[in-house]
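Comment thread on ticket #2218

A.B. wrote:
> Attaching the input chain for the structure job we discussed in standup.
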Amino acid sequence: MKTLGIVCAGLLAACEAGAADSTVELLSVAQDAATKNVTVTYRLTGADAIVTLDVLTNGVSVGGVAFVAGDANRLVSADESAVRTIAWAAAKDRPDEIGPLGDAARVVVQAWKPSEPPPYLCLDLMHANVGATYYAGPAAVPGGVTSDLYKTERLLMRRIPAKGKRWRIGSGLDTGDFPSWYVTLTKDYYLGVYPVTEAQRRLIRSSTRDFAKTLADYAAAGLLTPAVKVAWTSVRGSTIGAAYPSAAEGHARTDVDAGSDLAYWRSFTGQNLDLPTDAQWEFAARAGTSGAFYNGAANAEALDEIAWTKENAQGVVQPVGLKAPNALGLYDMIGNVYEHCLDWLTLGAYEDVNGTAVAVGGDVTDPVGPSGNENNWRVRRGGSCGEPWNSIFQMAYCRVRYLSFDNPWNAVTGYRLCVELP
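C.D. wrote:
> Ran it. Output below, let me know if you need it in another format.
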């Protein structure tokens, strides 16, 4: 066994009230000369933390390491008496690249506060309730963010840094059709890197798994496109789930119907997944921009870089992830398919999480849309491959609330998943 250099990255920010900082004490890092396997041991003290692993050579990350076992890329309990172990099958991960890592190799083990987790969260759709996996950045995602794995057998989500930011939702036109408000969101949240695909929806609603199926099989079957013809009530349900933003009697506002898509998602993954609110969707779509489109598009050619429209898709839904993402690494936020949001549509007062109405142009915190059903319309966002580009320019500002009947059965309507942080 050869001992390698180590780097320990501990949690610097204060932990939650009453808890000590998490501290990672790296004990050993070694590589077996014959198998090239790398073994890391460490101790986590203080508070529970999400622990991530990265491997550097000459100061550059080797990229996502897929074949990792043990106490890495997940939530780990702090215990000063426990020695934690990470095993990386380096040769299996990179058979053509990894030899002896050498003296320039460094292993980075980092602890993250659970309320301030890493940028990427990944959920396994092949094995039930195995817990979330976390990655410290896009380079750390095994196979890369655009791998078909995250369009089929895994759900990859991006942390959206929204907490405490005040911004303007809407086009800024302040007309009857395009009202706007100043919004502050009080929590970060994770949002799907892609809309839910046909492959993912079929998996989550199935009681069996075909472990012989390859990623190429999904692609050949045309299952990398967004799930479509999905009614809002199919996602949340038509009784308990449809009460949102109110709560059905004896239930919380976040509860959904048995048999709904979200009931399957929550049962299989153990995560409280939901649709995003209109404000959460728009904040993530804008990714810090203030124009109509997140790449500054001002003509058809510029819009073609980020969106599938009637002109470049001929009205046919396309596989996800083929157009350029926004600055947060989210794909297909504009065009391809409409995406459901939680809110009822409003062209009048907006309501915050406490049910307080805020007139157009005012400040609202954590908006949930109107409490009542004004027109039997739920919000859809983003436009679709059936819209001509000039129509999207007129209607599909990152903020426009598409008029979507409560139970639409629309050929180009799907959804993207969200989970709020504490």
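A.B. wrote:
> Thanks. Noting for the ticket: Residues 138-420 form a domain with the paralog of FGE (formylglycine-generating enzyme) fold (CATH 3.90.1580.10).
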